[in-house]
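From the shared-data thread, chain only:
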Amino acid sequence: QVQLVESGGGQVQHGGSLRLSCAHSGRTLSSYALAWFRQAPGKERELVAAANWIDSIQHYADSVQGRFTIFRHNAKNTTYLQMHSLKAEDTAVYYCAARRTLTSSAIILRGLDYDYWGQGTQVTVSS
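Structure, as C-alpha cells:
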C-alpha cells in the first residue's frame, strides 16, 4: 500500500514561487509513474504535470509549461512540483498521484488511471 502526503502549499503573491512536496510511504518510488493534479473551486480536476519512473519523459499542461517542473528524489521517496511565476489562475488544491507501472517509459495522463492520491495542499496566489 502506498500513502502520499503533500506539503508546501500556502499563499504567495503573483510572480512568486513555491515548491510542493509529496512524500511517499509504503513502497519505493522507483517503479511508479507520478503526477500532480489541481482543482480550483467550481472547476474540474486537471493534470498539471506527469512523469515516468526516472522523469525522462514528462508532460505539462500548456498553462504551466515553462513555469512548473516535476521531479523526484528517490532516496527521500519524495516527488516535487517546483512552481515559478505563479499567477492568480494557479490558485487551486494540488494533489499528487502515483501508479506502479511495468515499464519505465510509461507516463499516465488521466486521473482515473492513478491508484494512489494524496489529500491535497492549497495554493493561493494573490494579485
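The chain has a mean pLDDT of 93.
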